[in-house]
Automatic annotation (TrEMBL):
Belongs to the class IV-like SAM-binding methyltransferase superfamily. RNA methyltransferase TrmH family. The keyword DNA damage does not apply. Residues 220-248 are annotated as: Disordered. This is RNA 2-O ribose methyltransferase substrate binding domain-containing protein. GO terms for molecular function: RNA binding; RNA methyltransferase activity. GO terms for biological process: methylation; rRNA processing.
Amino acid sequence: MWHYCKNRHFRRPLTKLYRFYFKKSCHSPLRKVASVARSRAFRDKEGKVLLEGRRLICDALSAGAAPQMLFFSAVERLQELPLDKLQQAKLIKVRYEDMKTWSDLVTPQGVIAIFSKPDASRLVFPKDARLQSVPLFLLCDNIRDAGNLGTILRCAAAAGCDSVLLTKGCVDAWEPKVLRSAMGAHFRLQVFPNLDWDEISKHLPKDVVVHVADNNSSFLKSPVSGQTENGTSDEYSESDSDEESNELSLPCLKPQVYFESWAQRSTALVIGGEMHGLSLEALRLAEETEGKRLFVPMAPGVESLSSAMAASILLFEGRRQLLLLLDKTRRRTRSKIF
């Protein structure tokens, strides 16, 4: 067993004194680990996030995230990490059994770290991810399920999205279950959490077209006068008073099947939560940019797709259309040159 110092790696063997220090000092930091992992309020107040597992920690370090504290159960686990990027982190050895007391994993990997909450605009993303990205933006509107959000982020990274914007109604992007489901997506594309609707436009190009995904055939939780039972009617009845009409009427968005042309320039896609659906602000933004209501035809008797499934279908179709458009543009340029 070796002691790690900031300037030299594993220079001297641990004495009984060091073993005593590791054993006695781990209790309080482990409590802090549990607080970071389980409490969104604590994460927001302290500006810290917890990452568990070698791959996720390595992805964060590669992207330039700042580690503050790292727990390891064995020196072998520590040696699997890029030690040169852990110079400023406090390293603490703990028993594997102690890790299991707070970890919600069946088999903890024996290495966990507390990082300063990353700023998406300052992270350095992999070169291959940047080269494969397309002008496709994802807006998550009231996604409350952690597993769904993590899967959606993973799909967005795989589809080469430019960035992901999360409204304040979404589950915390740094929730442990979101991190596990996302499989490192937080460090492969920009993820901007906890945004007001007036902040959304600041992260989008001026010429963007915003489309909404009709993944659950319902725009608002409460029914609107003039809608059919499943909420997909394009006709709305007029109210007796102008005030009531303004409160109940919805933006009129033209429905369009997902495989028809809709991604022909910078494009944003809004995915709503399964329980609450899309917000009125999302529909208004789509209407302002002349966006469409995209839907996936399904066999009779199937109620709806999950938010994650709808996102994956639409994002990869959007990527296909944008790449096809890019290829056509390149061919035209070549023909003019030659």
